[in-house]
Amino acid sequence: MISPCISVCVLDPQTELCEGCGRSLDEISQWSRMTENQRRAVMDRLPARLESLTRTNA
After folding, report:
1. Which residues are CB-contacts of 25 (< 8 A; sequence separation ≥ 6)?
2. Can you give the residue ranges of every domain in the chain?
3. Structure confidence at residue 55 as a pLDDT band (50, 70, 90)
4. pLDDT score of 13
5. Residues 22, 52: contact at Cβ < 8 Å?
6. How many CB atoms lie within 10 A of CB 9?
7. Which of 3, 4, 42, 44 has the fewest Cβ atoms nearer than 10 Å?
8. Dist. CA 31–CA 14, nearest whole Å
9. The predicted structure's pLDDT at residue 2
10. DSSP code of residue 15
């Protein structure tokens, strides 16, 4: 199973997204139960989320 986890599990206090992978707590907890299409949809959104986190924390 693919995963965006990079073992940097820190939640941004404002967005509540993981600063390492960009997923929400709900997405992290549901990851193993998601379908491949659901995981790919989340993965497609992660680059923009991580960029947003970088700009917010800069």
Report:
1. 11, 16, 18
2. 10-58
3. confident
4. 93
5. no
6. 11
7. 44
8. 22
9. 87
10. T
End-to-end Cα spacing for the chain: 32
Count other C-beta atoms under 10 Å from residue 52's C-beta: 14
Q: With 90 as the cut, is the pLDDT of residue 5 above it?
A: yes
Residue of 28, 17, 24, 27 whose CA lies nearest to 53: 17
Token pair belonging to 54: 């970088």
Please tell me the distance from the alpha carbon of residue 54 to that of residue 40, in angstroms, as a whole number. 22
Q: pLDDT tens digit string along 8-54? A: 999 999 999 999 999 999 999 999 999 999 999 999 999 999 999 88
Which residue in the block uniquely carries the two structure tokens 């991580």? 50
pLDDT at position 49: 95
Distance of CA 51 to the CA centre of its chain: 12
Q: What is the pTM of this model?
A: 0.88
